[in-house]
Amino acid sequence: MMGYNRALPRFIAILSLASVLPITARAGLFDRGQARVLVDSWAREGYLEAKVADGEILRETYHFFEGRHFGGNVKDKSLEDVSFLEVVESLAEEMETRNYHSESNPEDGDFLIVVHWGVTGIEEPLDELFVNQPGDPGFQTQEVIADTSQGVGSQDFSTDFQDTYQSFDGSGPSGSDRENAALIGFDRALNRKGLMPTDESELRSMLEDERYFIILMAYDWQKLRLEKEYELVWSTRFSLNAIGTNFRDAHLALSRGASNYFGTNLDGKLGKTKTHLGEGEVKLGDVEVVETVDEDENSAQ
């Protein structure tokens, strides 16, 4: 049985999923349609070399932390019905593909993974989205306000969004499109040198429609716990078109579609995986990266 760490204030919780049972696979019972999951993934320099040794992906552990929930501009009951615990349960199962495992001891673990999720449809600037508003737990999650025995201080996790957003100078149809691009990772693809006009047009067109998304931001947990330093090690942002589906089916497809990319670095390209919506096992084809520039072009962020 999984639960919140009751020693922490009501505003936040670090989750341990060590005892979560896998989601029951029910493939074939329903035809829920297909989905194309687009992924932006970044990792700090040197992390991938340390993660893979002698061709083997090393085992690492983590704690989940509830980040910001984005409700969009239109009331979406499916977003309200799916709890944070349901989101991270499906994530935990898929993260094992990359040998990431939940840690039950709060003093151990490699990462604190902040999870943001929801649907695009932003109208106000990103910095305003993360402003603390007393009494609103959704806004309080920008700061880790944990028990001092956990060694956690205060940190504005929105800075990792803002740094990306401020670097994006593209001129879309509206400011909200630029903000949504920064939120789900399209901005890095749009900023790549040599981006073909057709690829740019396709990405901008996708931004005009609402997209369900999940964002994982993995911080060095021991450095945070012991030294009060916040070091982002890797982040993965993944989304799919929200039209014609609901978040209950979409969040499962999102976790499944992004499973091969957790902790990787795509250097601004977008990964693409086709999968089905809803529950059930699926055999994925080869992982495909959307080509936006020539292969000999190497422009990292």
Please describe the structure with a list of short key phrases separated by commas or semicolons.
301 residues; alpha+beta; disordered C terminus
Short description:
The chain is α+β, with helices and mostly antiparallel strands. The chain is built from eleven helices and eleven strands.
Number of helices: 11
**What coarse outline follows from CA principal-axis ratios?**
globular
- Using only C-alpha atoms, the radius of gyration works out to 18 Å
Q: H/E element string?
A: EEHEEEHHEEHHHHHHEHEHEE
Mean pLDDT, to the nearest integer, reads 73
Summarize the main sheet.
9 strands, mixed
Low-pLDDT windows of residues: 1-13, 18-31, 127-156, 161-173, 282-301
List the helices and strands and how they pair.
Blueprint: E1 14-15, E2 34-43, H1 47-51, E3 52-53, E4 56-57, E5 60-70, H2 77-81, H3 84-95, E6 100-102, E7 111-119, H4 126-129, H5 137-140, H6 159-167, H7 175-184, H8 186-190, H9 197-207, E8 211-220, H10 221-227, E9 232-241, H11 247-258, E10 270-276, E11 288-290
